[in-house]
Amino acid sequence: MLFQNLGYQWGTYQRVVDHVDGFILQAATVDRVLVDYSRSSHDVLQSGSILFDPQMYMAQLPSEIYTTVISRLATYPWFLSNAPAYDSDEMSPGKYRGEVARTKDLCVTVADKESMIKRSLESCLDFQQHSIGATHYIIPTPLIARGDLDCQMSWIDLGLEVFPEGNSFVSIAASERIFDNALCDVILDNLLARAVNGVYLVLVRQSEELRLCDPVSIESILRLCQRGSSKGLRIVVNFLDDFGLMCIAAGASGFGTGYSRKERRLAFSDWSDKDGFGYQFPTLYSLAFLAEFLSQADINERFAEGDLLWLLENDWTRDSEPLRIALESGRSANDVPEWRQTDKNTLAAVAHRASLLKRTVDELLNLDIDVRQKRGLSLLREAQRNSVYLHNELDEDDRPSIDLRHIALWLDRYVSVV
After folding, report:
1. Which residue of 150, 248, 364, 373 is 20 to 30 Å from 74, comparing CA positions?
2. How far apart are alpha carbons 236 and 414 in whole angstroms?
3. CB neighbours of 215 closer than 8 A, spacing ≥ 6?
4. How many helices (H) and strands (E) does the chain have?
5. Which of 351, 376, 401 is nearest to 20 (CA)?
6. Is the separation of the CB atoms in 358 and 2 below 8 Å?
7. Residue 165: C-alpha distances to residues 139, 168, 273 (Å)
8. Cβ neighbourhood burial of 207 (10 Å; 0-12, 13-18, 19+)
9. DSSP 130
10. What is the CA radius of gyration of the chain?
11. Residue 199's closest CA among 184, 214, 211?
């Protein structure tokens, strides 16, 4: 299954509804008040599978650096917080947000006593059932920042009592710096001993790369997907971008991704309060390279002008077809309004990316597991071959700006695991 991570403005995702299997909403992107007032009015949350990530793993972030995130998390009842409780009969959404913002030393923490943990879990399930209308439920757990899992297993044990059996995923969120094979095996042993059915895996990144490039983490995630699925676990990974394709090839059931940086990876540094907003240009996602390229600067000026469009022959979708037609007729990407390389002009690019990923996910999931794993290997080998060819064909100054080194890393670790 392919899930689209939802950002703050839900309306911008209307075009991808038919290109994904469902949506994942996160607590850090919207506060409880917005969910209560807006959920029923958005078509993107009326079809397909809907998941809500409670993001318990983001608790205890310092509010002086993460003011916006903490002010949103503090509105949810499964966090312990010094923010005022929300009462829709007593205050408007705007007034409540103001009360939260004015709370001195605002903070959110995690319950550590059994009775309080159970209340947090009950409130979290109630919210997912009645405020979100989720089709599947995520059992929240704190971040794994060390090798000790006692705290997380306390939440899981109680969560399995509270949440419906067979329709829930246990959240496993770990820091990139500690996620290795040893931790992977401990996690799997504990989950299998508890007869857990589903796992929702999140890796909290420390590195700055958009795509996962840590060999240890790459191998451990693939190992968890392969071993876990062979034992009957349904595994959904999130915030690993198109590495999710390799996870599905290894045995996972689905993955979540998106177009913006926050939708594609989870790094706390991306959520800190900063001045201004980054640029977002249209890029053409390519399965042939497991990467995306700027519409004008790369696809037009490198591929089209270098007679290399044939490398992308299997990457075109209905949303990118106007771009292909323009380039093959000698026109530029900037001659196609929806693909003109200007800031925030990304609707067609977002839809194209989702469509191509969905097509590949469906192909993989329709294969028997042994054939699926071999197909994952062929995808990586094709991308590696194409990246080497592109590197050799273009002079250094003419090469696309996108970093393609992740392909060799993924291939190397995939071969060692799968």
Report:
1. 150
2. 18
3. 409, 412, 413
4. 13, 12
5. 351
6. yes
7. 11, 6, 39
8. middle
9. I
10. 22
11. 184
Q: Are 26 and 7 in contact (CB under 8 A)?
A: no
| Residues listed for the chain | 418
- For residue 112, the one-letter residue type is D
- Where helices occur in 13-138 by DSSP H, the ranges are 32-38, 67-73, 93-101, 114-126
Instruction: Output the pLDDT for position 341.
Output: 97
Structure confidence by residue, pLDDT tens digits, 165-201: 889 999 999 999 899 999 999 999 999 999 899 999 9
Half-sphere exposure of 116 (CA within 13 A, CB side): 8
pLDDT in tens, 209-252: 999 999 999 999 999 999 999 999 999 999 999 999 999 999 99
* Confidence (pLDDT) at 118: 97
Phi, psi of 213 (to 5 degrees): -130, 10
- In the structure encoding, which two tokens stand for residue 12, read together? 């911008």
**What integer pLDDT is reported at residue 9 of this predicted model?**
66
pLDDT of 315 strictly over 80: yes
Phi, psi of 159 (to 5 degrees): -65, -35
Residue type for position 228 = G
Q: How far apart are CA 255 and CA 248, in angstroms?
A: 8
Q: Which two tokens stand for residue 10?
A: 């839900």
- With vertex at residue 59, the alpha carbon angle to CA 13 and CA 171, rounded to the nearest 5 degrees, is 65
Taking the domains of the chain in order of start, what are their residue ranges? 283-417
* Distance separating alpha carbons of residues 149 and 193, to the nearest angstrom: 14
Q: Which residues pair with 269 in a beta bridge?
A: none
User: Residue 393's pLDDT is what?
Assistant: 87
